Amino acid sequence: MSDLVVIAFPTEARAEEVREKILHMQSEYLIELEDAVVAVKREDGKVKLNQMVNPLAISTASGTMWGAIIGMIFLMPLAGAALGAASGALTGALTDIGINDKFMKDVAGAISPGQAALFLLIRRMTTDKVLEDLHGVGGTVLRTSFDHSKEAALRDALAAAA
Questions:
Q1: Which residues are within 8 A (CB) of 105 and not within 5 positions of it... i.e. 6 or more apart?
Q2: Structure confidence by residue, pLDDT tens digits, 110-137
Q3: Distance between CA atoms of 103 and 72, rounded to whole angstroms?
Q4: Contact call for residues 135 and 160 (beta carbons, < 8 A)
Q5: For tag attachment on the chain, is the N or C end more exposed, with fewer CB atoms within 10 Å?
């Protein structure tokens, strides 16, 4: 079972910096993520999601490739590619991988314009080492599915003087 953590930051740049730090920890096998998204509340009040993976682009490219291959069988590769791209784009638009987009937009709606929220869906982590690396990065925990002691340790690590 995965754990959800939502941390608010004063700027998009700071949230992206912390996400990069966590992705680096993942390359060191200290944490295993299912998803890491930065949600930014723009000045007009709308929320923009900076996803790690864009399912629309991946599905469109995949659909184009498979459509062209199938089109070659029927001697119509361009028509097959166009049809494949359209079906791939439709599939990508309807696919939501990781954290639910509507949930992220609802939660990020509570932060002030110009601020950002980092959403992490954590499969596994070496808690003591991850918290040590996050020591003093700042941010405010908005939501978490951690137990009370782990949540308190995360709050303390974020708030500690750098």
A1: 39, 47, 49
A2: 899 999 999 999 999 999 999 999 998 9
A3: 42
A4: yes
A5: N
